[in-house]
Amino acid sequence: MQAYNKGFAYVYNWRWAGFARQVAPLLLDFYASTPIGQTNKSVLDLCCGTGHLAVHFLEKGYRVVGLDLSEHMLRYAQENARQYVDSGQARFVQGDASDFTLDERFGLVVSTYDSLNHLESEQALRRCFECVYAVSDGYFIFDLNTRFGLRRWNNIFIDDSDDDAFVITRGVYDGQSDKAWMKISGFLRLPDGLYERFDETPFNTVFEMEKVKEALLDVGWKNPYFARIQDLKTPLDDPEREGRVFIVASK
Predict the structure, then answer these.
(1) Residues 6 or more apart from 59 whose CB is under 8 A from it?
(2) Which pLDDT tens digit goes with each residue over 179-228?
(3) Of 1, 19, 15, which is closest to residue 184 (Cα–Cα)?
(4) pLDDT digit string (tens) for 56-65?
(5) Which residues, in sequence order, are CB contacts of 211 under 8 Å at separation 6+?
(6) How many whole angstroms separate alpha carbon 178 and alpha carbon 198?
(7) How far is CA 6 from CA 12, 66, 170, in A?
(8) Residue 206 half-sphere exposure, CB side, CA atoms within 13 Å?
(9) Cross-strand partners of 111
(10) Are 3 and 147 in contact (CB under 8 A)?
(11) CB 169 within 8 Å of CB 160
């Protein structure tokens, strides 16, 4: 799994926190409506990034552990959730989503913003499912980009809306391969007024949705299904027709 560099973490924290803020209330509402969600207010935010989703749950009184491979992402998460870290309500740990253990269990495990597409293979994804199963007492909810959805990566976007950063994203996916790539580069303004260049090339692995479901069942997860974030209770008939799907599984 990729561990993002300092420049990418800065841009992610600054420009791309909106997705976490959008989906967090919907995830919380779904979980709070379940029987276990009535009493168990513990959350593992897997691939927590800069911690914005975690903060939403923390603000609602949940105890949260965030896990991410990137030390730079975790540094922002620590700062964004500083008051909750200091009080002991939150902690953030460095680890690989496909190879981790924790000494506690959680009512809800979430992983968002297609983080698990960044695992390199079906085997790594299955190992992730096993790791999560070992620390879960309730629900596992995560999202994936589909093959159909990754076609949107074929574009170039320039963001020069702020003097402190200049960001270019260039996506490549041919619609057939098992990987889609996005080159993200730009310049960050330093305190002395000079600019520092950064480059990052994240990939998405293309997973067939039916194989994802089979892997979850093989590991022991019950009743996995695909849904849209706007309605996590209603299974989709054909998830491959969606650009992004959320997968809901329970213990």
Answers:
(1) none
(2) 999 888 888 887 788 888 888 888 999 999 999 999 999 999 999 999 99
(3) 15
(4) 999 999 999 9
(5) 122
(6) 26
(7) 10, 18, 19
(8) 19
(9) 142
(10) no
(11) no
CA distances from 149 to 46, 121, 174 (A): 22, 18, 12
**Tally: H helices and E strands in the chain:** 8, 12
3-state SS, residue 166: strand
Report residue 63 as tokens. 């105890």
Query: What's the rounded Cα separation, in Å, for the pair 101 and 35?
Result: 26
In the numeric block, the tokens 């909810």 are attached to: 141
User: Is residue 170 a contact partner of residue 156, using CB atoms and an 8 Å limit?
Assistant: yes
Domains of the chain by start residue, with CATH: 6-148+205-250 (3.40.50.150), 149-204 (2.20.25.110)
Q: The tokens of 71 are what? A: 């030390």
State both tokens at 25.
């209330």
Closest CA to 50 of 83, 86, 18: 18
